[in-house]
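Troubleshooting log. The previous structure file for this entry was overwritten by mistake, so regenerating from the original sequence record. Sequence copied from the archived sheet and checked twice against the printout by T.R.
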Amino acid sequence: MSTLHGRILVTGGAGFIGSALVWALNRRGLSDIVVTDVLGSDEKWKNLVPLRFADYVEADQFRRHLAANPLAFGRFTTVFHLGACSSTTEKNAGYLIDNNYNVTKELAAWSLEHSARFIYASSAATYGDGAQGMDDKSEDLGRLRPLNMYGYSKHLFDLHAQRVGWLQRIVGVKYFNVFGPNEDHKGDMRSLVNKAYQQIQATGQVQLFRSHKPEYKDGEQMRDFLYVKDAVEMTIHFAEQAPTAAGLYNLGSGQANTWLTLTRAIFAALNREPKIEFIEMPEVLRGKYQYFTQADTSKLRESGYQRAMTPLPEAVRDYVQGYLVTGKKLGD
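Regenerated output below.
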């Protein structure tokens, strides 16, 4: 039985992690949920079809109505703010500032003013190339150097929240490499699992980027891959089991794996022999490419999160066999 109650807001609730979060709330018997997003012309609306919620509002309308009347949509006990432009290649800096920074400031201030628990998506992209570490315990946020404008837009809010004292009252979660069902609409920002599955269906093989650092062999660049079902459990934890926790938290598996390990798990889930081709990395990515990410999840564990992480081969198998092969969404 969930200790969550009252009305819940999920921004970005039609998106990848947002819709998975609504699914996890539904599994707890919760449906007094207002979902906001920008549905646009892609197919992420399909993520909403199996889910139960009280209302859907386009994000710009929600923002406008809230500015005119802070109680336009009733009182909320919990706000999960996952809505953002998550494209790491987005070049329109002004758009990112408004969408990822200004909106988050407005929602955080509104949530605190109305005593709603505020949990928002920061990003592991704020860590940049990892040269300054990926430590969620350090108070020195100014040391971080994001590699792209998306990461910087997230970093700006973290800095603001710290400066005005909000980080002592709210939670920012830094997702590492999340993969899983409901990401089909994300285009180039889909996980390798999703892209590789499509490649295998079309060509029987998977293409991976060559390494441009001698200390990493081709395919042995490493990432912390996190299954979306684990990611949303960790996120809900801060409203359910740890309602007074505050600050920034890494959300990852805590284990770095190579692209080769991940790719072989995809072939294994399809009962096929691995066929992998290495291709040149585009010039535009080379200076912004992370060769190693691994979340230190000790702070998450110290907050009382006790669930085991889904082992990578098991997570890949669940995703590939349960969703990619069947075409199902979470909740179907």
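Residues 8-178+226-252+294-307 form a domain with the Rossmann fold fold (CATH 3.40.50.720). Archived copy saved in two places this time.
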